[in-house]
Amino acid sequence: MSTRTGSLGQPLRIGAAVTSNRIILPAMGVELAEVDGTPNDAVVAYYAARARGGAGLVVAGYTATHSPQSGAGPNQLALAEPRQIPKWARLAQAVQREGSLLVVELAHAGLQRPAWLGGVAHGPSLPPGREDGPSSAPTSPPVFAPPEALDADGIAAVVEGFALSARWARQAGVDGIELHAAHGYLLHQFLSPRTNRRTDHWGQDRGGRMRLLREVVRAVRTEIGPAVLGVRLNGWDGLPGGIDQDEGEAIAAALAGDGQVDYLSLSSGGSGAAWRASSAAPYLVDPGAIWAFAARVRRRVAIPVAAVGSLATPEQAERVLASGVDLVAVGRSFLADAQWGRKALAGDLLAIRTCIRCNRCREEENLWHEVRCTVNPDMGREGIPRARGGGRVLVAGGGPSGVAAAIAAAEAGAQVDLYSAGEALGGRLRRAALLPRRHEHRRLLQHWAERLERLGVTVHLGCALSTAAIPGGTAVVVATGAEALSRPNALTTWELLGQSAAGGLVVADPSLLGVELALAWAEAGQRVFLVGERQALALDAPAFLRRIALALVEEAGIPILPDTGTGWPNTERVAVPAALRPRVAEARALAAAAGSGAFVVQAEDLFEAIHRGQAAGEAAAGAGR
User: Fold this and answer.
1) Predicted TM-score of the model (pTM)
2) In this structure, are residues 149 and 124 in contact, taking their beta carbons and an 8 Å threshold?
3) Residue of 46, 47, 62, 185 marked active site
4) Would you put residue 617 in left (φ > 0), alpha (ψ -120 to 50) or beta?
5) Residue 134 half-sphere exposure, CB side, CA atoms within 13 Å?
6) Catalytic (active site) residue 419
7) CA distances from 326 to 52, 60, 95, 297, 299 (A)
8) Which distant-in-sequence residues (6+ apart) come within 8 Å of 489 by Cβ?
9) Residues 348-365, mean pLDDT to the nearest whole number
């Protein structure tokens, strides 16, 4: 799959600056900085890799300002003190050397300041239900710091904090500033009628609610002069009484009309928002609504507009640009492949390691963990050189761990043979990828096959590695995994995947796979039922993905039956979970035959399979030097 891209590769003037292309690496929390927010070697390597990988504009993620209580978590970036300028200068130089612009996203947590960071959480008003002050209606344990409504002096301190941080950013040599006025943080809280219930000139109507953002824009523009100034806005926040699309469009148009801002980055959602408003939608959700809103706003404003939200492929990016927007913000896809931009610009689509939108990265960020990517074990470790090796490596197993091991060993310099008992690569992931909504999973499988071919890996399909075929002194990666077994006198979820939906179906499998099968059957117009308690469905899924799966079940009107078997309809099919059998005997025999040259991979999920597979492949190649 190779096709030259068009609009992605065109430069764009943003204020006084010119980008090399239309691709933005948007601000995303990756939690790699020092405890005080200073950029370290890991941060520099992470952003430089994405600049080298084709992002024309790199936005350094959520950066706390000099404003009091502006931080939202640990190991986030911060530009709160002038002593941090030299390290920020090092980051700016690293990004600019790769031909990209570096913009710093300045932000203030507002009412979303975590309780364990200490202090208070500043907001325009006390949250609903907390009008009597911090002691009323507390949660146990509290999630956010005690709320405090800003007075005039507090608001002035916020404005000054943004301005000082912008001044220090320019002294560090960055190309511009982006103000974070979305996702439920302080500037968004002032914009939203849900959280801004002030009766003074900082609230009341749209003009009052926009006053703080406009003051910050003016103060920052004074400090940075002609440098790039952008604003990240919520097109809508998905909250009752918050910012709907009409209000979001009006705010964007008014801000652009002020003539102080060089571009708008239009996102949506935030803490507690309706799932359809999420800018980081998982694979169960069609992300097109956010792109359409950005195009709608662009028709009303005279400055560049960036579309944000779940862009996984270059084809999607080109369609979004064709709708009228000027820039595409590619976030999670750049986590999955740091070279996404260069490959997209070259039209080498199968070379891209596709983001599967599993949202493991966002789950980690929400827990304030150092962010990792399911399909890219090198994410966050760009500054650590990959091991080199040689010799010959045999890989037993064609599932994700075996494929990851074969790729890693070949990249390290080894001659690799991959043996798969199945007739196709991917193992159980290939079966799960038959589900209708898993477009990105299917694309990832195509990428893996292409990558193995380009690396010269010899793939033996329908041919399990035998102990007799292991030469002495050869490194062997044992990644035999597990198989899904059929059940006597019963159909399993695995056996129904990929079959045409026809007739009634009772899904007595509460896993995410079972829920997705039920959704596929319902969307095909068939009568389908799920079995079990609602709170027990899809418990094996990440929290946000599970929330959406359950919402889709409700929207589809899929009845949930008791697991007692009583009251079940008469249908010709009942799907039950498949038993998984780890191939223990095969793995032990291969490991014994390889002796000290065996590298065994054991994994519970896709994340572990890929990460441990890569580590085993690198180790095996290293053993063959």
Assistant:
1) 0.94
2) yes
3) 185
4) alpha
5) 15
6) no
7) 21, 20, 22, 11, 11
8) none
9) 90
